[in-house]
Amino acid sequence: MLADANFAIKCGGPEIIVDGITYEAETSYLGITSSYVIPTEKWAVSNVGSFTDRNNQPYMQNKLERVRNTNSTELYQTSRISTGSLRYYGLGLANGPYTVNLHFAETVFNDPSSHTLESLGRRVFDIYIQGTIVLKDFDISKEAGGVDRAMTKNFIATVTENHLEIHLFWAGNGTHCMLTSSLEGNYGPSISAINVVSNFTPKKNRTGLIIGVAVPVGVVTFTLILIFVVFYLRRRNDDDEKGKSPKNFENDKSGTPMHASKTDDATTHVKGYSYACWGYREHSDNKNKNDLNQRIKLVSSPLNNTEFSDIIAEGR
Questions:
Q1: Where does the Malectin domain lie (predicted)?
Q2: C-alpha–C-alpha distance, residues 244 and 33, integer Å
Q3: Which of 90, 181, 201, 289 has the most CB atoms around it within 10 Å of its CB?
Q4: pTM higher than 0.70, yes or no?
Q5: Domains by residue range for the chain, with CATH
């Protein structure tokens, strides 16, 4: 399976398909300091900042009026907003160069021609990608040529550690407060949608991200042990038929390994699941258990500490 290389987010709104691209819904509740990871773990969002004049603010903006300068009004009618810091993360990405498309529309403030208090607000914030500032004092309405007008900013970013960070940050510029307005607090970062596309053909994914994703190592390990056991049993049967015993071991009459040279590295790798726990023994039984314990070597053994102690106690 190919590593994830592309993702698209409908910030602050429901899922929508535009030009064949599925923008996944991003409508989770974000509090003063909170984050959300999508169930597929392809991306995440976090917010830091609070509205001083209201409680339970969803940090989302929804405007039903038509947005101009686009054929896809629905993509811009909703947006995710923040009073301070808003971050989006692409997770489990294949390393390489990407094109980051950020979609904006100022749908909170009114048009200056309305001569209302709500038309005086200025939204100014900074944009960072992979920790590097790409836009300083970005003003959506100024860049788009007015309010309720769609615009897109495109950037090239390089992923080197399987994740991408997009950070929108209000640095205190623009409007600070509108105390007599219903828009108090709506002057921080705002974004309508994100679309990230790889500029390469991803290879097979051999790594995982490690923000909430785990590889089933236990299953793989068990499978390898099972294969090893089957191989050993077949090998042992062949050796028994030929009258041979495992190499590098002295055996008692029953064929059980008795001892091996501690200086011979080759003898510390036992070719057998049954011999996974074995001890260096000398032909004297006057050694105490502590001495025996120090001489025990575990090689590829699935036994836990309790089982190992039982073996020592029973003198096996």
A1: 7-194
A2: 68
A3: 90
A4: no
A5: 7-198 (2.60.120.430), 246-314 (no CATH)
